[in-house]
Sequence to fold (248 residues):
Amino acid sequence: MSIGDKAGSGDGEYERGLCVQQLAVAYSGVPAVRGISLDVKAGEAVGLIGPNGAGKSSTLLGIMGAIARTGRVLVHGQDVAGLPPEKVVRRGVALVPEGRHVFAELSVADNLRLGAVARRDRAGYSEAMEHVLTLFPILRDFGHRQAGLLSGGQQQQLAIGRALMSDPDILLLDEPSLGLSPTAVDTVFEALDVIRAAGKAVLVVEQRAEFTIAFCDRTFVLHDGEITLTLKPEDAEKVDVLTKAYFG
Ligand SMILES: Nc1ncnc2c1ncn2[C@@H]1O[C@H](COP(=O)(O)OP(=O)(O)O)[C@@H](O)[C@H]1O
Ligand SMILES: [Mg+2]
Fold:
């Protein structure tokens, strides 16, 4: 029985995590995402890879309710149809957008505080802050520094930390490795591993195919708005062949 069936029956115990069914997005009638379905369960990391323009960002924005979509998005088995992004955040979903978008003029600490605005549970604020500062010690060291002065890797840590301040169960990330040094990429993915192990559901969009396939429990290849392939970690070694076959 799928999560969707359960959601309809109202019989209680839903599987924790994200379930996307037949998600479609179009811009002025031009399809960008053509009916894709995927699950991310609590404690799993799922990858979504594909070339520029494949529809990766549109998928994440569609899930958040930031752009018009069709299909169903279930959060812990509950349909979030019609909810604007801020309400989707309150259901426990957070997006780390492409390009990070930290508030450059504000301090690191204030960026993190802003992330807490969407918290469902105000009481857990201090714990959440401590958790983020333990996960990313550089954010503690640089708490008073202007966010715009951080390196790209540090800003990515801040963007993830800010998303975690809303206490999400489901974390969506749009190309977190973009423009980062190899060391910074390692730092980010080590943190994602900790976040996954803590029982959160992680959906990560990437262009770095091999790295993502190796890291994630499952990785979907998106091509022109459709999922064309599902890969397991052991497929990472075959990626040269896959890249040629599926990215052209
Ligand atoms: N705001 C927009 N208006 C019109 N077309 C868009 C917009 N955003 C994305 N697109 C188009 O939708 C398709 C998918 O884009 P996107 O989801 O950004 O892909 P990806 O993140 O995989 O690079 C592309 O053809 C892109 O040009
Ligand atoms: Mg994109």
Summary: Confidence is low (pLDDT under 50) at residues 1-12. The CA atoms of residues 51 and 82 lie 29 Å apart. The beta strands are 17-27, 30-41, 45-49, 70-75, 78-79, 93-96, 170-174, 201-206, 218-223, 226-231.
